[in-house]
Design a protein that fits this description.
It contains four helices and no strands. The chain is elongated and about 60 Å long. It is mostly helical. The protein has a single domain (15-146), classed as Up-down Bundle (Four Helix Bundle (Hemerythrin (Met), subunit A)). Helix 3 runs antiparallel to helix 4. It has helices spanning 15-39, 43-70, 79-109, 121-146. The relative contact order is 0.17. The two termini are 18 Å apart. Helices cover 74% and strands 0% of the residues.
Length: 148
C-alpha cells in the first residue's frame, strides 16, 4: 500500500507560503480600494491602489520563485513533488496574468475619460479575476501545505 506523503519527501516550509498567503489576501482588499476610488471618479486613487496591488502580486511571484529555488526536491522527485510544482506553478501563471491585467488597467487609466464611475468594466473584470485567483490560492494553500 502506498505511503503518503512519499517516504523521503521533506516537509514543506510554511514561512514563505504564509507570507505569500497574507500578501494575496491583503492585495484583494487593496485592489477593492482602487475600485471604490474609481466609483468616486478618483482616477489617481484607482492608479495608486491598483499599482500597489500589482506590486503585491509581483512580490508573491518573487516569493514563489524563492521557494522553488530553495526546495529540497525537484519536479520529478515523486508524485507529491510533481503535484506541488504543477498546482503552484499554474497558480503562479494565473497570478502573473492578473498582474498583467492590472497593468493594462493602469495603462488605460492614463487616457482621460477611459474609466469613470459609470464606465469601468475593465476595472471590475480585473478585480473579479484577482479575487478568484486569491480564493484559489487559499484552497491550494490548505491542500498543498496544510493537508500534506
Amino acid at each position: 500500500m502506498p505511503v503518503w506523503p512519499p517516504e523521503g519527501m521533506p516537509e514543506f516550509e510554511l514561512l514563505i507560503p504564509l507570507i505569500n498567503t497574507s500578501i494575496l489576501v491583503a492585495s484583494s482588499f487593496v485592489m477593492h480600494e482602487g475600485q471604490k476610488a474609481l466609483k468616486q471618479d478618483n482616477i489617481q486613487g484607482l492608479q495608486k491602489w491598483f499599482g500597489i496591488t500589482a506590486a503585491m502580486g509581483a512580490v508573491f511571484l518573487a516569493g514563489q520563485v524563492y521557494e522553488y529555488s530553495h526546495a529540497e526536491f525537484g519536479l520529478t522527485t515523486n508524485l507529491l513533488a510533481s503535484c506541488f510544482y504543477v498546482l503552484t506553478g499554474f497558480h503562479g501563471l494565473h497570478v502573473m496574468t492578473g498582474v498583467l491585467l492590472i497593468l493594462c488597467v493602469l495603462w488605460r487609466s492614463r487616457q482621460p475619460g477611459h474609466y469613470s464611475s459609470s464606465s469601468h468594466f475593465g476595472v471590475e473584470a480585473a478585480e473579479i479575476y484577482w479575487h478568484f485567483v486569491d480564493v484559489i490560492w487559499l484552497v491550494l494553500f490548505v491542500l498543498v501545505y496544510l493537508l500534506n
